[in-house]
Amino acid sequence: MALIIIEIIIILSLPLLFKYLSTKAKILKTLGPIILCYAFGILIGNIGLPWDRGLSTTISEITVPLAIPLILFSLDLRKWFSLAKKTVLSFVLMIIAAMAASIIAALIFSGQLEEGWKISGMLTGCYTGGTPNLMAIGMGLDVQARTLIMVNACDIMIGGIYFFLMITVVKWGLRKILPPFQSTGNTHEEDVNALKGIFSVGKRKGTKGLLFAGVLALASVALSIGIALLITGKMDVAIIILVVTTCGIALSFWKKVRATHGTWNMGQYVILVFSFALGSSVDINLFFNATPMLLGYTATVMFGALFIHLILSCIFKIDADTTLITSTAGIYGPAFIGPVAEALGNREVLMSGLVSGLVGYAIGNYVGLAIAYLIKLIT
What we know:
Layout lengths: L1 H20 L4 H6 L1 H13 L7 H20 L4 H5 L3 H24 L7 H11 L4 H10 L4 H33 L11 H8 L10 H26 L4 H16 L2 H4 L4 H18 L10 H26 L3 H12 L5 H8 L5 H29 L1
């Protein structure tokens, strides 16, 4: 029992340490807390310590459904629809591009990867929303733990390369190909500051609100489990993920919930706990001989989605900055919107990028699961 308690304490506390360290050291900030959690989780689970992989697996299975509503509570769908029509259109085109690229990759690599159709679904969700969608879809499709970690690792490797290109060569190239951004002179400063508050932990006086949000998240998970049991007679993870996502979106329309500062950070912390627990549950010996093919698969989906999005932007005459900020929202999620907007020298796209990223989180699970089952049907 003592070892179990110690393991739980380690899994819950080290992600907080990594999150803190990633804000202090430049190299750790570059890697990011998720990578640190994966890496140290794998290390701890494979250095011969008396580690219960079954317990780690159980914790990883519990945390993702809990993180989803916490992340989505800060979503404001009505604000997204109030943005410029070009922004909404461009993000919709990015979603279509991610779906098309995933289907193309599945056809190219058909039969070469054991869980190819599941990987396509995970990457579709990831490049519509972000890493939480990749993880949720992987769980919903009962993907092997090693596959889940390796797909995320490949996404980070390919995504890191593209991010460097995007803020250097790509932004210059797009501005040569696509129409220029038409400035309105409105930086949406008040809206941007309000939305950026999503990414900060609330003040002490907001603790009661955070507890309330936590209870709502737990209730959402309980409801999703109940519906899954009612429909299938078992805890079908795909149904749980879809229902808990729907609950998160529905509760985001409640202003009291949406205005609670800190729910985003709370959800991100739960994702870090998941990452550490999942890493520590995997036998590192399972990794060998699988990465090159998976790396090619991931690159095909990511760069395929970006290329298709570029073609569609040309057809619909979407300007360069809007194209780049909405593709960032899809590929990376809200966390990278700020650096890209700064690289573009355009604060007017900050608002549209942040909100589009949150919308991507909301719909990524639906789109990813739908594409996965479609590919399973046609391949």
